[in-house]
Amino acid sequence: MQTLFYRLKSLFYLANCRHVLILILIAVLPAWAYAQEAAGVAQPDLKHHFVGYLTIAITAIAYIIAMTEDVHEMKKSKPMILGSALTWFAICTYYTLHGQAQIAAKAFETNLTAYVELMLFIVVSMTYLNTLSERGIFNGLRIYLLNKQFSYRQLFWIIGGLSFFFSTFVSSLTVGLLMGAIVLTVGKNQPKFIALTCVNIVVAANAGGTMSPLGGISTLFVWQKGILHFTEFFALTVPCLINFFVPAIFMHFSVPKETPHAPQETIQLKRGSKRIIFLFVVTLGITVAANIWLEMQPVSGMIAGLGILQFFTYYLIISEKPGGSEQQKGFDIYKCIAGVDWDTLLFFYGAMLIVGALDFIGYLGQIAHYLFIEIDVSLANILIGLSSAFVDNGTLMFAVLSMHPEIPKGQWLLLTLTLGVGGSLLAIGSAPALHLLGLVKKDYTFSFHLRWMPAILLGFFLSIGSLFLLNASSFQ
What we know:
This protein is mainly α. The protein has helices spanning about 1-30, 50-65, 70, 75-95, 100-135, 135-145, 150-165, 170-185, 190-210, 215-225, 235-250, 275-295, 300-320, 335-340, 340-360, 365-375, 375-385, 395-405, 410-420, 430-440, 445-450, 455-470. It folds into two domains: about 1-110 and about 340-475, no CATH class; about 115-340, no CATH class.
């Protein structure tokens, strides 16, 4: 493994050296292969230019390094950030040398704005979750499940149902981590239960996040762009429930029937915990209301909710009685903000900027022409959804949105559904699965998840069938 790591490291180093040389060549030989165009008259077509080919090469290398994170143990955000920088520096260098710097700079700014909206939305959501965790809410949930003496089969359905519910307003990544920690505790000494419940968590979290723009990344993108209104996502409720229930029913019969034995514990919630849950609900309500009635971006309501949370945590600190049993000293809301999964957020930065570069050059337009004009649109959306088993669904959705396809609302619902739940097919297809692989390690593996792919695939196609059946008018 060490030898493989050093070989990959050497290749990565050589590749980066070549990228530097290529950028120097672009700067020194700006007129090469493009002297036929009048500078400053028309926007250059870089699809068949060296800069375009360079962008494709950098994109491929960055994604390969990011997807093989477990091999070289480099955080996935690092190659994506560097790759996005190299692509845009190459594009902007070329445009500057041809007197059109503002065009490229404006395109970069547009993509950056789209990312900032996503980042702030997720930061607020994760901050609330970190605060609730610090107040003991999720530890209390774990103790409650253990104290109730549920059987493994009951716990399998309860944890799956909670994963589905929580992911409708919390990122599936966070749900995967929270539920994974609970599974490891309640399923101690029962590896089969742990493995099966982890698969169930992945499917449930992806399905729940798909039916609500508050929980799923790809769904959030569609909502932020104003393509579908908040209430229109309710059409995905039944398909998402089918997607969750079908594989869970198959797995149910393999879950052990025994009841775990654990010592009774007392639930101890810190001061203000229940009120923070209420504030989170209020924040989500403000977000939806501001979008529907004021037509403001969803991030506006989330930021308002963060301000409310900051004032409340300040109140908790100053109102604590001296000498009380529970001191608030050390409770800093900014520590909860710092606990956000920045690696994932920065990965999305690199991915969105790289996709934006490919769109600016024109490659995504060519792909869109093939997918949405030359072949059947429904088939294209299903194929895109299946590909999310290998490539991050948020990146794929941003790529499709960048293509600006003219398709009916029913097709947008189909794309949202397939991209949201398609990642459940493989253990490398979604954020909760990847983090459970790292958290659970021995019991939940890629091969174990693959064993249940036929049942997950059946749920995938049955959910699509139900969407067509229940929303036939939306596809016209």
